[in-house]
What does this fold into?
Amino acid sequence: MGEQSEPGQGKDMDLGQDAPHSARMYDYFLGGKTNYAVDREAAEAVTRLFPAVGTAARVNRAFMHRAVRTLAELGVRQFIDVGTGIPTSPNLHEVVQAVAPESRVAYVDNDPIVLVYADELLDGSAEGETCYVQADAARPDEVIAAVKSRDVIDFEEPVALSLNALLHFMPGEDEPYRIVGRLFGELAPGSYLSVSHATGDFAPETMQAIVDTYTERGTPVQVRTRADVERFFDGLEMVDPGLVVAHQWRPEPGSGPGVVSDAQANLYAGVGRKP
It folds into this structure.
């Protein structure tokens, strides 16, 4: 079915170069080049506190790849990725369309620099379809309306909703459980929720220092316990092996940065199915 693009990408927009942004910091942790000096300074401050942060970023990316490929193998053909971040190949659509070329993917982010690079998210298979929309995950109605406006996703059929390394950027006052409930509640039975989330369970003092580092630079963060992350899956049927540290979710040789401890991964991850 081809691809869709947004008009006017990269023109006359404020790219927020005066303050660090979590998506560009994540790009730096992954070894990317789409970041500014202000992002690198903030990322290095985090790295000094938690030298394994680059490892954790790669663990998260590898979990995403395994999770969406598993869902494609289970027959899911529609995916919504909220908090997409800066494109890093293989992107979600590349993974799922390698399994099922007819898969349809909607990417969602609110960082204007992601919009600049969105063409890299639109190079999907001829049989499938991909789109990118700009919307704020903290406003779920805005996200739903934006995705529906593109007619790529059929909300009457099962969808896989990916919220990877996103929810820890929603502190308690942002009502993250309500937001996830609203987003996932819009989806049909048989849909799946995929979540990865930073935790303070393994190194609470270090993680509190990292939270402070992000917050002081304008990005509120809230790490959560395993029980807190489990709440996002209330009422869902967990896909084996359930909620685990991210590198333990269906590990595969060559997937991720190699031998990793739970403390280095520092992320819980899981996939749940809507009955």
Remarks:
- The chain has ten helices and nine strands.
